[in-house]
Design brief:
three-stranded antiparallel sheet; 234 residues; single chain; rod-shaped
Length: 234
């Protein structure tokens, strides 16, 4: 509310100045007209006195009639001039008020347009900021997508290598394990602790369990223990 009052203060002040100027102009013109009326009154009184003296001295009726007609014309002209001057003054003051109001309206419209332009500039600035943020986010997402694609390609390559190794190694390991079992009759467990060698030796008469801690025995000792279970009879 205070902002609206401050914005309208210059317009109200301008309108007040226009009205004061019009009133002052009316006062000056009215004063001039009053002064002119006083001068005309003096002239009329002097003319009337001179006319009376002339009538009393000459008694010329025709001259008196002519003087009366001229005096009437003078009065008529004076009244018409005063009326015309007053109308012109009123028209001038009204025109000044109309022009002043139009100026005030233009100033108000200019202020509104300036505010609208400022608002649009702020909106454009916010849009540019949002666009920059979106561009940055898009660039980041594109880089992240490219990185994920590279990672996916690496995973596919590793998976292919693992598949190839599995295809080659597992059958070979199975073949070796089967061959080892046929020769030694020893079947080792796979799901054991890293340092535990566990399994079963299937002899001709009895099955012998195997449970060796590889962390406390040497490879040669372990090999000797295993081969000691194998029969030499064929």
């Amino acid at each position: 509310m205070d902002c609206a009052f401050l914005e309208s203060a210059p317009s109200n002040r301008r309108q007040f100045e226009i009205r004061i100027n019009g009133a002052c102009r009316r006062s000056v013109i009215n004063a001039d007209m009053s002064q002119n009326d006083a001068m005309h009154k003096d002239d009329l009184e002097k003319s009337g006195e001179a006319l009376i003296e002339f009538i009393e001295s000459s008694k010329a009726e025709s001259i008196l009639r002519g003087a009366r007609e001229k005096l009437q014309e003078f009065f008529d002209h004076h009244v018409l001039t005063k009326k015309t001057t007053t109308e012109l003054l009123n028209d001038l003051v009204h025109a000044e008020e109309v022009v002043g109001q139009k100026l005030l309206d233009l100033e108000q419209l200019k202020s509104q347009m300036a505010q609208e332009v400022e608002r649009m500039e702020q909106e454009v600035q916010r849009s540019l900021s949002k666009s920059q943020i979106l561009d940055s986010e898009q660039e980041f997402l594109l880089k992240e997508l490219e990185r994920l694609r590279d990672t996916e390609q690496e995973i596919q390559t590793l998976q292919q290598e693992v598949d190839e190794d599995t295809t080659e190694v597992i059958p070979s390991a199975i073949y070796i394990a089967q061959l080892y079992y046929k020769v030694t009759k020893i079947k080792l467990e796979v799901d054991t602790e890293p340092h535990i060698l566990r399994g079963v030796h299937y002899g001709m008469d009895v099955a012998t369990p195997i449970n060796i801690d590889t962390s406390t025995r040497s490879a040669c000792e372990i090999s000797d223990d295993l081969w000691s279970l194998v029969t030499t009879e064929w």
